[in-house]
Amino acid sequence: MTYVIAGSCIKDDSCIEVCPVDCIHPKPGARDFETAEQLYIDPEVCIDCDACVEACPVIAIFPDFELPEKFAYALELNAEFFAEHGTAERTAT
Amino acid sequence: MAGARPRVAIVGAGPAGAFAAACLLRAHGDAEIDLFERLPTPWGLLRGGVAPDHQEIKRLEETFDRQTLKRGCRFLGNVEVGVDVSHGELADHYTAVVYATGAQTDKSLGIPGEQLPGSWAATEFVAWYNGHPDYRELDFDLSARRAAVIGNGNVAADVTRLLTLSVAELERTDIADHALAALRESRIEEVVVLGRRGPAQAAFTSAELRELGRLDGVDARVDAADVELDAVSRRWLAEEGTFTARKNVELLREFAARPARPDAARRIVLRFLRSPVEIRGNGKVEAIDVRRNEIVRTEDGMLRARPVGDDVETIECGLVLRSVGYRAVPLPDVPFDERHFVLPNERGRVLAPDGEALPGVYAVGWIKRGPTGILGTNKRDADETVRCLVEDLVAGALPHPPKPAREQIDALLAERKPDVVAAEDWRAIDRHELERGRSERRPRVKLASRDDLLAAAKRGT
Questions:
Q1: Domains and CATH numbers, chain B
Q2: A79: contact with B, CB 8 A cutoff
Q3: How far is A49 from chain B (nearest CA, A)?
Q4: Tell me: the pLDDT tens digits for B140-171?
Q5: CA distance B182 to B187
Q6: Coil, helix or strand for B38?
Q7: What ipTM does the predicted assembly reach?
């Protein structure tokens, strides 16, 4: 499974600060951070620890099995964001 | 007064002010912060801007409350700086003053007919449906079959959604009662959304655009020809386009490929490369004239819309909502940059006309950087401003206020403004609204007049 960020994300970076595996991007300072409309979780790296859900000040992060129907699209969207630049590459820069 | 606790006034209790207060308390736990707000309620556009059907985002108020008011930051609501208390007086009473007043007016289109009854700023409509007490008396005529929304940003998407959502869905939100009553009687069947530039340049987030295509009983239409990208846009999208821009174009192509749903109760029609040239009507809005644009790359590398030919298309409509940007207004006794519509500043330190920092005066949020970014952008913006403030504090660069005692500002306010809304008064308002919400199975039922808000504040505990 994985956690998923939906369109209610406000780009507060609290989730990034608590993620133990650095799988939430783009990070402040990254090339595409300012233009990103939300943050995304790399499903290949996420370890399902729930820390980001606790930290999120709005209701934007869900485990994939509890994703509300209206946010169902976000599962594919999060994965797609990392299709071009994976977490390893993003974290290295 | 070395070692004394710094006293900081933050002007404006919207997201920028709240993030600044929270950040300052993290950096300087003993700071005494007074959060001034001209409304009786805190959290600015989180309450008065974020759409009522986006309750997931309104949850942020709990974080604001926990990180500010519950940590000793005082709320001084129903006090307008510049009217009830002057900048000079704040400077007399506080070590530092942080302006977080946002952008309170909208950009106009600058076309004939814009002042006709029925032509509004989208932000007026937003403030009205969100229960902002200064906008409750506005009378939106929703009796025509068609409305036009000008602009391609998230405010345009919000007002389009609010005009097309079913009554059953609106009833589950915290939309203001007067707006719910008016929208119940709305005869609007079609909302035409006009974008000056093309689908690839639309400023919607893909989340907002996707939502427009998923509304119950609403057919979102876009003409297939309108999503055919021109060569300039195609190249831009492939080489420089953001993830969001590519998603938007994909979504619009999906909308265009769907079969029309003539049975749908309402319709959203997205039109691109169209600029309004005149709003027409006899005593009220009856139609809008639009002209076609093309996308060109200018010398500075920007993609701009340029009019093509003189052909004008007339779209009949009885309501026009323009959403082409916000603009800040000058504040009394504080420098203002008339070109960029912000307080002139460097990383949040407000600058005097000679370019030197004005000691103890700061800016945060839209009044600092202009109306860009989303809610979370203010967190990093506040970090930057607060870092400057703390640096100045540590360097001893801040003036010692002649009247530094809390009792002194309280005495002044008591004299000027006997009905200041404090944090506990706001909590009484909040409880009242949430209780009414529970009884109506809604997230909250807002009090939308100053009198009602102040009465609930006074009834208190």
A1: 7-104+328-421 (3.40.50.720), 106-326 (3.50.50.60)
A2: no
A3: 22
A4: 999 999 999 999 999 999 999 999 999 999 99
A5: 10
A6: coil
A7: 0.95
